[in-house]
Amino acid sequence: MKSLINITDLSVEEIEELINIANDIIANPDKYREKCRYKKLATLFFEPSTRTRLSFEAAMLDLGGSVLGFSEAQSSSSAKGESVADTAKTISCYADIIAMRHPKEGAPLVAKMNATIPVINAGDGGHNHPTQTLTDLLTISREKGRLENFSIGFCGDLKFGRTVHSLIHALSRYDNIKIYLISPEELKLPSYVKSDVLERNGIEYIQTTDFEETIPNLDILYMTRVQRERFFNEEDYLRLKDRYILTPEKLEHAKEDLTIMHPLPRVNEISTAIDEDPRAAYFRQVLNGKFIRMALILKLLEVEI
Ligand code: CP
Prior knowledge:
The chain has helices at residues 12-27, 51-62, 84-91, 107-114, 130-144, 162-171, 191-199, 211-214, 234-240, 282-300; strands at residues 40-45, 66-70, 97-102, 119-124, 150-155, 177-182, 204-208, 220-223, 259-261. By secondary structure, it is α/β, with parallel strands linked by helices. The model has no long low-confidence stretch (mean pLDDT 95). Residues 49-52, 123, 132, 263-265 line the site of phosphoric acid mono(formamide)ester.
């Protein structure tokens, strides 16, 4: 039985199929209203979330299914010392599919190894966030009409930003992608991602600290927040958090058809004055997250479409 722990668990063809199903759901929502009748999704969130948890729940409800779960570790028996493995075995008795977010890297993999139902990684520490990546790929495909031949700039916290790590993994399998990595020295992309993903796959990339100089080169700008919860030292966070802020002035020399993305939540890194700019795709990205998660649930539950 299939689960989704890393984005590379899915082939490029499987991702294309999910994007096609999501586009069909957007075009024909009524066709899908009863597809998961009597099916239950458990959302096990040991870390805060707004979009991922609620979009999973909205996705299952829009498919006619039901949802159960918890939104913080303290309200589950993990607060009494229960292991992830035992939690997964327990939830397998109550639900048909699990979406799990956990602060520890690898926790969803442990859940998968112990569950008897499919497990979806909804974000594990600074490691991976594959359903955000599916959301991002659907967004790029809908905004640009393609998943190859573009320049993308990742800006902000590239060290701890799991959405960045997952999306770079995914994009390394498409043709002619040029990547700009814009971050302070302290928040650079981990060297294992550079060597194991970018260099191994021959992906052209440029590392820089210069945001304004880079923006005119980009077809897609992927902003990220500095991940306060992963810092050991509050002083470092305060020093780095406002290093890159996208303002209308900084977009003066950007391409007319630039696509501005952000996995959200936003803290300070995109001025709200940009929200009405047609190039700002981040709230369309939020909506796409529900549709691609609907497609994923259908595929993992092997529902006939
Ligand atoms: N993009 C994302 O993962 O948002 P949440 O933390 O609100 O789920």
